Amino acid sequence: MLQPYMPVITLIGELTILVILSILVLGCILLILTLYAIRSGNILFPKFMRAGLLFLEGMMRSMFRLFGFEDSDFFRIIVTLQNTLNRKAFMSIPVTERVVFMPHCLRSNACPAHLHDEGLKCRECGLCKVGEGKRLLELLGYRVFIIPGSSFIKRMIKRYRPRAIIGIGCLLEVKEGIEMSGQYNIIAMGVVNTSDGCVETSADWDQVFKTAILGIAPDKIPEELKKYIE
Ligand code: SF4
Predict the structure, then answer these.
(1) 166 and 118 share a domain?
(2) Where are the transmembrane segments (predicted)?
(3) Most buried residue, 18, 25, 168, 202, by most Cβ within 10 Å?
(4) Could you read off the pLDDT of 112-147 as tens digits, one per residue?
């Protein structure tokens, strides 16, 4: 009974095997490129890598685990890729059209500031580094938001319509934030915290400032931030 359909069934079988083999080969290429990027800090073919890693995210995470890597290594490379790809476009956007979002978990436990409709109103009291970070970023011309959650981000995006964002936060927040920015057609640069948790987390301030000065003329950079010019 099956005989008239045999060529079709065979063709489907062969095509399926071809697709599976192609995916496996692609996965191996991506794995090699990713391992190279992690070891050397150099990213080859970033567009191809980003597309491939996002398209095959589930499988690539499994392959990573197989080689002893954590999901966090995978997410970190995605963030690095996004930053690499967005860097040039970010530099071309005037600072007046950029905003910074940082999580309110960076603040001190004894923070005297209160929440208002645009996030935490930092008093620059000196109990944590948020105040000084915010001051320097504002000196550069940024609008800075210290926010308790992603609903604030969406609200501020609608209110101020920035063209570029620096997102500070834990690894997963930054990865998801960059993806969300893509949906709004906003260029995002992520800076991953050096310590995670719910309270008194630490931002990678050096990286924040290195990112913040991108594309800004040296004479417009405050003296305190000149050391970050690369
Ligand atoms: S510097 Fe700002 S965020 Fe930090 S504790 Fe003081 S008021 Fe709160």
Answers:
(1) yes
(2) 15-38
(3) 168
(4) 999 999 999 999 999 999 999 999 999 999 999 999
Cβ 199 under 6 angstroms from ligand 1: no
* Whether residue 139 sits in one domain with residue 40: no
pLDDT digits (tens, 9 = 90+) for 141-183: 999 999 998 889 999 999 999 999 999 999 999 988 988 898 8
Report how far Cα 100 is from the mean position of its chain's Cα atoms: 13
Span 217-227, pLDDT tens digits: 999 999 999 99
Does the C-beta of 113 come closer than 6 Å to ligand 1?
Answer: yes
Residue 24 maps to a domain = yes
Distance from Cα 72 to the centre of ligand 1, integer Å: 29
Q: Which domain holds residue 194?
A: 92-228
On the CB side of 116, how many CA atoms lie within 13 Å of its CA? Answer: 6
Number of domains in the chain: 2
- Helices 71-91 & 46-55, crossing angle to 10 degrees? 140
> Which atom of ligand 1 sits closest to the CA of residue 131?
1
Same domain, residue pair 101 and 184? yes
Answer whether 147's CB lies under 8 Å from 120's CB: yes
